[in-house]
Amino acid sequence: MTAQTNPSRTADIDTIVERLQDMLSDDLTATEALLIARAKSPVDVIPDLSGYIVSAGGKRLRPMITLAAAHACGGANAGTHALATAVEFIHTATLLHDDVVDDSDLRRGKKAAKNVWGNNASILVGDFLFARAFTLMVETGSLEILRILSDASSVIAEGEVHQLAAASRTDLPTEEYLAIIEAKTAALFEAAAEAGALSAGPQGEQYAAALASYGKNLGLAFQIIDDALDYGGTTSVIGKAVGDDFREGKTTLPVIIARRRGSSEDQDFWDRALDPEQQAEGDLAHAIYLIRSTGAAEATLVEAKAYAELAKAALRTLPDSQWTKALSGLADFCVSRAH
Fold it and tell me: Is the pLDDT of residue 125 over 70?
């Protein structure tokens, strides 16, 4: 993994997502319309702030997983569109809350909403979007789908609190790191895929567990790569400033591996530098050097690839179709962002 990106490789990555966006064109149009309609409120700051972050876009990866999972199980419908919208609202709400907790300045390449409207408004509008998501879930009329997404919302919150409690713990075991990212990131990927399958009807019930496994492993691969990119990506790829995790004292997989493989002097560096109050000029550059020189960057990529392969393997239970191929391509996309 290097900071420089191969232009032809970037084009290949973009093509994977663009192809799926084309396949889902009508569904995504319906979802975007719902995102705008359900963010409306007579309180001006709510549509202004929510519209600001929703319009910043991102690739709509989680809603696309919901929609493609439904198509892989027979077809998407109005209920699927509502679920895709709910999934994006949950994701957006967590972003608003995260930026306050992490004191981030950038989100999706723009000023974080809390830097425009303030912390209080960001938190409260995040709460509003969570509530809107639950309204959309209820409208599907499925208690099972409501359970899946409400459970995921609880798990995400637990994951964020767990990560906060583990901040600056340089001795964080790999297993605990994986438990944190499974909760804070993979849980929504898993719920998005499983709920999408169930929205397709009886055939979806048959494949819901396989798609849940796909989503969970895809989410793990996605977050591991995000954590690696913090030490060697570009802001345009990850949508936030490079080094944010380091400055916030987060112990992520590349740090865990680099510290484990490093000398006692290197371990002393990590113990000091991951305390935001003790960080000094040049620490980020040295952290990046250690992650590369110890092979931690490549080892992190290998770990992400393993989860991506598990995600792809889970799709083999489903009938082969353009949709399973597209979902498999998303797993490749998640890992390829690191190249």
Answer: yes
Residue 63 domain-assigned (yes or no):
yes
The CATH number that applies at residue 51 is: 1.10.600.10
Question: Per residue in 202-219, pLDDT tens?
Answer: 889 999 999 999 999 999
The span from the CA of 129 to the CA of 62, in Å, is 16
Q: Look at residue 262 and tell me if it is in a domain.
A: yes
Quote the CA–CA distance of 277 and 285 in Å, as a whole number: 17
Distance CA 98, CA 266 (A): 30
pLDDT tens figures, 265-324: 999 999 999 999 999 999 999 999 999 999 999 999 999 999 999 999 999 999 999 999
Verdict on whether the full-model pTM lies above 0.85: yes
134-174 per-position pLDDT tens digit: 999 999 999 999 999 999 999 999 999 999 888 878 899 99
Task: Judge contact between 256 and 172, C-beta under 8 A.
Answer: yes
Question: Which domain covers residue 128, as residue numbers?
Answer: 7-320
Q: Taking a C-beta distance cutoff of 8 angstroms, is the pair 277, 305 a contact?
A: no
Distance CA 282, CA 41 (A): 46
Q: Is residue 249 part of a domain?
A: yes
What are the backbone dihedrals phi and psi of residue 106, each rounded to the nearest 5 degrees, phi first?
-125, 145
* Cβ–Cβ under 8 Å, residues 249 and 274: yes
Residue 333 in domain: no
**Number of structural domains, the chain?**
1
